[in-house]
Design a protein that fits this description.
14 helices, Rossmann fold, single chain, 5-stranded parallel β-sheet
């Protein structure tokens, strides 16, 4: 028996009782009025009781179990750090609203009755919004307060973040690339993924481009970002934090990474070089992809399907399962065939790895 069905039965009983009581009162009122009523009190109670049972049977899950499930699903998407910051912000906002409640109640007329409630709602929301936006600074302050006085973190005024608590900035290129979603699901990226608002604005600008290819890439980035936010085990935050005096997105990312002492996740070669020169840690998706490719040595045998001609005369080209290109000498004669080849040389380039081989 499902939870929804149990709550439907309970709601049907409760609404039936309420309907009977309401019908009884309406019946007495109608029969005591001048001119009488066409129905008796029992008929009023029975009819409205049936209506209440029907309402309880249909609407109970929408006011009980469905909202609870929605709230649980929403909370699962939030990190512990965000929940803690939001709770502290709400408490701070309610304290401020409580201090202002008495002066606001002295306002003349209806304002004295409405403004205390408006203050509770406004300052509660304001506290949650501010504290969640600055949650990294808040957690750092708490870690600094409770760290030991002789530790290096206490002396420097900055608490070191553990691998599970660090923040990783996302670049626009790595969002459009799409592989970040699969990598994050594996659990190899510790910490929370932070997407500044200016990165999201650039992604939206690309998605609204007049060029069809750029528009498709931007929309794919939006879909990847949406998929990341729906993963309960991947904390993703979009922050309004900005860098003054900078116009380029890459420059803002580098400065922001230096301020937050966090790495940048990207596959942009130029951003990679600029950030490394300024001492910012870079997590390059392309380097990760090259690192996890299978290692091959000259003399090993591969089973490859030759799918196209190479640039040089009589060359054939095939691909391994991980996408590594295999250039086959004298492989032109084996087009659209699967053959065994012997590795002769492995060449590592900035764009990836190439394998040279010859047919056995």
């Amino acid at each position: 028996m499902s939870t929804d069905f149990i709550f439907r039965l309970v709601g049907m009983v409760v609404f039936t009782i309420l309907g009977v009581q309401l019908g009884t009162q309406l019946g007495y009122s109608a029969n005591t009025a001048p001119g009488g009523a066409p129905f008796s009190v029992e008929q009023y109670s029975f009819t409205i009781g049936l209506v209440g049972a029907l309402i309880g049977l249909i609407l109970t899950p929408y006011i009980t179990t469905r909202p609870v499930r929605f709230v649980r699903k929403l909370l699962n998407k939030l990190s512990t750090q965000s929940l803690f910051s939001g709770l502290v912000g709400m408490i701070a906002g309610l304290i401020i609203a409580g201090l202002l409640a008495n002066p606001l109640s002295l306002l003349p007329g209806i304002f004295g009755k409405i403004m205390p409630f408006v203050g509770v709602v406004f300052f509660g929301y304001l506290g949650v919004a501010i504290f969640t936006t600055r949650q990294n600074d808040l957690i750092g302050v708490f870690q600094n307060l409770f760290s030991r006085p002789g530790s290096q973190a206490a002396g420097s005024g900055i608490a070191p973040a553990s691998p599970d608590q660090r923040t990783i900035l996302l670049d626009t290129s790595v969002i459009i690339d799409g592989r970040i979603a699969d990598i994050a699901r594996t659990g190899f990226i510790p910490g929370a993924l932070l997407i500044p608002r200016f990165v999201l604005n650039e992604l939206q600008f690309i998605a609204d481009s007049s060029d069809s290819l750029r528009r498709q890439r931007g929309r794919r980035g939006m879909e990847v970002l949406s998929a990341l936010q729906k993963e309960p085990n991947i904390p993703v935050r979009i922050s309004d934090i900005d860098v003054e005096g900078m116009r380029e997105v890459d420059d803002k990312l580098v400065v922001l990474a230096r301020q937050l002492r966090c790495p940048i996740l990207t596959n942009d070669y130029n951003l990679n070089r600029v950030a490394e020169l300024q001492g910012v840690t870079i997590l390059n998706v392309n380097e990760l992809a090259n690192a996890v490719k299978s290692a091959l040595l000259p003399g090993e045998v591969l089973h490859i399907r030759v799918i196209q001609e190479g640039k040089e005369q009589n060359q054939g080209v095939g691909y391994m399962d991980d996408g590594t290109m295999v250039v086959i000498e004298n492989g032109r004669d084996y087009l659209d065939q699967e053959i065994n080849v012997t590795v002769t040389k492995v060449l590592q380039t900035a764009a990836g790895r190439m394998i040279f081989a010859r047919p056995e």
